[in-house]
């Protein structure tokens, strides 16, 4: 018995994933790590082939045949869930009919970690499983670090892209974003409305109350424009006090008139700033891009610009829908593409 006890103690240290079988094939001793695979099901006293299904060699169905295959690699699978596959090696024990099945390094390291939470403490110090566990842990740590880095990079890219398309003062889209939105609608072949908006008397606010007041006015204007348009519309600040609104569902001049009227009405109200009052208004010119026509987007924007100048020269604080007749009335006032004149002169 002393020799048998010494053997069990040695196996518990050297290969804690093992079983010792008696002559009838019943488990008489089980290593602590192997028992961890089924902590609620005692293995001692059960037949080995009731616990494990022998997948290969296929011809073995009895304990005598199993003992005869001593030294042959065994492919086993636990019969109950989870049906973990393991590999083992059977050798004769000390006494007649006794067998020792060593399963160390026979379990998938992924299964050992994910299904059973085995650690290096569950294996012998020289077992190669420990090295594999370290590799899995290192890989998991590296993948987690990579995932976090990718998330940070993705967040940084999104933030950088958002910043590249955003006017920092007002939070509106900028000219670059507007060009992107317009190009997208052109590619889709959709008809959309385009409004050019220029603030009236804004230069006077800057000159009399300072740039802080001007910034406050621009932020207020941006909020009003967003509130008076829909989520599908695009509001962009394209210059100091110049704005453009793209309206994909406003496919006629009448549809834009209501939006423009509300914007002008709200922007005509005094805007308080630090005990002072900022007074502005807005002039609007609108045009329709129709993919069926031969007009380019640049030409339609020029049409909206011509309509805007008609509003400016008509008394400001009003909106005008483009018609070809406007060019005859404004040709002496507006240069081609009309973007280079000082509107607050």
Annotation keywords:
single chain, 345 residues, alpha+beta, Beta-Lactamase, Alpha-Beta Plaits, 2 domains, six-stranded antiparallel β-sheet, five-stranded mixed β-sheet, 12 helices, 20% strand, disordered C terminus
Task: Give the helix level as a range of percent.
Answer: 40-55%
Structural class category = alpha+beta
* CATH topology descriptor of the largest domain: Alpha-Beta Plaits
CATH homologous superfamily designation of the largest domain? Reverse transcriptase/Diguanylate cyclase domain
Question: What is the domain total for the residues?
Answer: 2
Report on this structure.
This protein has 345 residues and is an alpha+beta fold. It has 2 domains: 2-125, Haem NO binding associated domain (Beta-Lactamase), CATH 3.30.450.260; 175-330, Alpha-Beta Plaits (2-Layer Sandwich), CATH 3.30.70.270. Helices cover 43% and strands 20% of the residues. It has 12 helices and 13 strands. The chain has a 6-stranded antiparallel beta sheet with strand order 2-1-6-5-4-3. Strands 8-9-7-12-13 form a 5-stranded mixed beta sheet, sandwiched between helices. β4 and β5 form a beta hairpin. α8 packs antiparallel against α9 (211-227). The longest helix is centred in the middle third of the chain and has 37 residues, at 128-164. The N and C termini lie far apart (111 Å).
